[in-house]
Amino acid sequence: MVDFSDALSSAARVQVQAHRDPIADATYNLHQPTQEKFDRLKARWPEPVNMALEDMLELFNFKPSHPLKNYSTADFQVFLPPSPVDIGDVWDIDSEGILPFLRQFHLGVTTELRYYSKKRERHVRKGTNGAKACLKAISLEHIEIAFRIHVLFMLDGPEALFMPAQFAGHLVINRNTRHVYKFSLSLPSRNSNVDISAFGVADIVFVPHMELSALSDAPIHEIAWETAITEEEARKKLATAFYKFAEIEWTPIEDVVELAKETNRPIHALVLFGTLNDESC
Asked: Backbone phi, then psi, for 68, in 5-degree steps?
C-alpha cells in the first residue's frame, strides 16, 4: 500500500503549457458552415441570434485561454487518493479541483455533462460525469498515477458545446523531493474524438492534438519500476470504473463467425457510429 498523505511539497512551482490544434476533419462540417447553411441554422433557432458567420467559424477552434500557467505543487493534490492504495486501485478525483487545470483550454469548462436546451425546453444529459485515477506504478524514487477525465466546454453561442471523448493523463511524483516529475493530460489521438453542437445540431470531429503538459524533460522511460501494471491495464481499469459494460470480453468477428457455424446459431450484429466506451458520440 502507498500512503500519499505527504507525497507532494507545496513549495515548488510547476509550469504547464496548453496546446490545441484546430479541427482537422468532421462528419457534417458544422464548424465551417457556408453563409447559406449558417442562415438556416439561425432561422430555426427560437430566439434572435446576434452572431456573424465569422464568429461561427472561430467558435469551435478556440485557442487556449492560458497557453502557459504556473501551478503550485499543492494544486496537484487533487489527483491523489484520500487514503493508502495499492497498484491497480481506482479512486474518484474531486471534479471541482481539476477545473483550474482545464480552464487553461477554455473558461467555459464544466464537469457536469448536463445543460438546459432552449430548443427542447428541457435538461439534456450529454454523457458520463466524473474523473477517476489509478495507481499505475511505483519504484523507490517515483510514483505514477494514470487518470481519466470527462468534461464539457460550453462556448459562447446558442447551445454551443465542445465535448471531448475523454482526457487521459499521467502524473509522476518524485518520492524523494516530493515534486511533480512529469504531468500530461491529453485528448485521445484518434479520429472522431470530439462531439460539437450548436443551434441544436450535432457533429463529430477530429482534433489531432489537445494537451496540457508540464515543462519538463523528465525521462520516464528510464525509470526502473519495481511494481507496475501496463498502460492497457490502467486504461481498462479506468474504463470499467466509468462503464460496467467495459468489463465485457469482446470476441473478434472472425472468431464469432466460426463459433456461429460450429453452434448453428445466428449472429446478432450492431453497427456503432463512434466508440462505445467514451463520450465521442
From this structure: -140, 130
